[in-house]
Amino acid sequence: MESKTQNIENREKIMRAARSLFSERGFEGVSIREIASAASVNIAMVSYYFGGKEGLYFECISEFAKSKEVSVKKSLKPMKNTEDLKRNLKAVVEDKMNTFTEDLEAHKIIMRELQSRREPEFQKKIMKQLVPVFDLIKGLFEDAKKLNLLKKEMQPEHLALMLMGTMSHPCIVEHAMETHLGYNMTDPKKRALYINQICLLFFSGVLK
Q: pLDDT at position 203, please?
């Protein structure tokens, strides 16, 4: 019988292998056997810990989404003026981009999923995990609008979509950016520059 420590280690080995394979080949392109082999565990353990491939795939997304929700909540502070809005916006962008390396595989899985035409109920289940982070960012812009900090034509929902898209784009084109532009987001200097550019773009475009 496995100890609690072994259970945790085996579960994490399976998760690491799954994130790597799912991020590169998608849900349909990976078998349970391949995941078990990459994790060096018995194939039955995938079902034991996650109930099968679908459960494992869902957990890869859910674990990441919950961690992002927690970190974004910590980034957002009470807001009264434009400087507070700038601070909050920069904190959200920094949190997202500074964890680029460790979160890259999860981001790739999510980007693939958002473009898929999966069974509606399963996709709805996944989207339920992702919406809270979007709502937190939308809420930031909604609060800014109530405080009259944004240009009147700015729409919080659209701003949240644009910000999340801008932050996620390097995850989607990571290989192309490095190959053709020499732009590697794991480089702290390049990442800091990208963070600064996002903030400047939003500060100059949306604030009154």
A: 93
Same domain, 5 and 79: no
For 112, the token pair is 């693939």
Question: What pLDDT does residue 5 have?
Answer: 72
Q: Position 29: which residue type?
A: G
Query: Which residues on adjacent β-strands are paired with residue 60?
Result: none
Long-range CB contacts (within 8 A, 24+) of 78-84:
79/140, 79/143, 79/144, 79/147, 80/147, 81/147, 81/149, 82/149, 82/207, 82/208
Q: How confident is the chain (208 residues) per 10-residue block, as mean pLDDT?
A: 74 95 93 96 94 94 93 95 96 90 85 80 88 96 96 95 91 82 84 92 90
DSSP state of 40: T
CA distance 39 to 18: 8
Give the whole-angstrom CA distance, residue 58 versus residue 19. 11
How far CA 102 is from CA of 73, 95, 107, 141, in Å, comes to: 19, 12, 10, 27
Q: Which residue has the tokens 């399976």?
A: 14
Please count the other Cβ atoms lying within 10 Å of the Cβ belonging to residue 45: 19
Whether residue 83 sits in one domain with residue 19: no
Burial of 101: CB neighbours in 10 Å, binned 0-12, 13-18, 19+: exposed
Residues 115, 28 share a domain:
no
